[in-house]
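Write out this protein's structure.
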Amino acid sequence: MTIRFATISDEKQIFELFDECTNYLHSEGKPSKIGKGVFRKIIKQGEVKIFVAQDKGKLVGLATFYLIPNIRHGWNRGLIEDFFVTQSMRQHGVGTSIFKAIKKYCIKNNIKVVKLDSAVHLLAAHKFYEKHGGVIYGQTFRFVMF
């Protein structure tokens, strides 16, 4: 298994993973139908990193990493979203490998703090994040603007 940054050639498999994640979470909207323009923009600009796990030519996990400048502290912090491993590859070290790659990237790029939001009901994910040093810190508020 290798961990690398996504490229435009990964688009089809990326959206298969995103669609599976949406189905798993019982969310509305299919990313493959609504997210292609955003994906292509992210890949083209290169400021947001999509870490992907590839096993035998197939993408089996991903995490989207956003770099956020923090004026008050004078350094960058990271935000992880859409951390997902395909059902058949859970408990095989895929998530751990992705998380280690993100940590290595952060150390190399002097990113001191990484935040990650998780839905309240995703208890297995919470255990995974805690296992990797995550601590519950504050509360997240969501505002739907339309």
